Amino acid sequence: MYAVIDLEATGGKPGQERIIEVAIFMFDGRKIVDQFISLVRPEVPIPPFVQKLTGIREPDVRTAPRFHEVAKRIVQMTEGAVFVAHNAPFDYRILREEFARLGYDYQRVVLDTIPLAEKFLPGMPAYGLSTLCTELNISHTRKHRADGDARATVQLLQLLLEKDREKYIEGVYLKQPSATGRHKFSEQLERYVKTTGLYYLFNADGRVLYVGKSDQLRVRIDRHFLSTSEKALALQAEVANIRVEETGSLLLADILEHVELKKLKPPYNQAKDKYHLRFGLFPIETDEGVLWDVRGIRRDPPALQVDSVADGVALLGGMAEARGWALSDVLLPRLVPDVEPEQSNRDGLPTTADEALEALNRFLWPEGSVVYLDKGRGPGEKTAFLVEDGRFLGYAFVRLEQEVYDLPTLKNRLTLLSQQPYLRSLLAEYVHTGRLSEVRPGIFPTLDEDLTETAP
Questions:
Q1: Angle at CA 253, nearest 5°, toward 192 and 303?
Q2: Phi first, then psi: what are they for 285, rounded to 5°?
Q3: Looking at the whole model, is its pTM more than 0.85?
Q4: What is the pLDDT of residue 340?
Q5: CA distances from residue 402 to 334, 386, 441 in whole angstroms, order as listed
Q6: CATH number corresponding to 2-180
Q7: CATH superfamily of 186-249
Q8: First and final CA of the chain: distance in angstroms?
């Protein structure tokens, strides 16, 4: 039995996409015997380009079931069936990530119609679903909707099965790791379904080939060993060992990944892997005063790195609101929304770039010392990040509440971090998007000089 599936999702970075529509057609090789089609409420905004592409808008999913409400139906329908999709790694990964958020390790044998179309239908101008449907006279209504794309994929699968006279699909394709979902490290990774942390891929000589991080380590590592790209196959041939380091905190995983990539320089990582914050805040001195620009980072170092222009504008908007300034007093004109409420307090507006940097730092970091808390590696544990006078000093795992309030003990347990601007930017992103809790335990003693001298 084949479960032919198509998903529509919010898009975005891998690991952050959420499903907005799912369609499943159970196909026995001759006809459809069952089906399930549903919108899904993603509980995150649907980007405008996705709304335009799919026609699925925010009001359409407002009363739709959440993923956990359709999860059982998906499991029951696809149990024992082959998971089929056009560009199956995409749909399968997103579905596995949704299940991993629920703590369930969703695994199926997977059939991707793209490589099979390339094998059995050589010479096509392209192998996208729309092109194949045009070339093969396959009905393809409701493009970019889950049910329309899945119905077209059923017809394509039926044609591929008819052309497979030597039973290559059953005899060879469905036994490969990319289809079975099983590889030489699968057993080792079984307990890391919903685990946050860092992972290292080693060769036989102990050299680190790749470093990565995820809040769904099992799903993320599997992608390396189930991909059939040229680079993935080369990596698979070299990997001899895997090590996982649980952090509990995704922020800590972000920090350690950056530090390890700079130190180890693994050959299979790309340069961009070191930085997921690729935009920056830049103070610009103009005739109207100092205004902030938010743009991609080129050569000049920014005052702070952020994930997107929108995040940078939101952060600076928070600073403006806290000081009673208008956005037009803070941002370059191209960044100011068309409609902004009138504000009259212009007191304290910076007149130089240095003053603008000082104002930003005062907004970002409280005076004195502060501890920011995130998830730990298990029940009762927290990850504590210590900042003192705007300096991000390091982190420690704590279990007892008094360990957070007892600063000398916390400092003794602290793993110190080098004073890298990027690490400070990572912490700022998590703090100002509300992902960490803050502890201000009265008056902290100052950090001993000999402690700072040991920082790497």
A1: 160
A2: -80, 120
A3: no
A4: 58
A5: 48, 15, 10
A6: 3.30.420.10
A7: GIY-YIG endonuclease (3.40.1440.10)
A8: 57
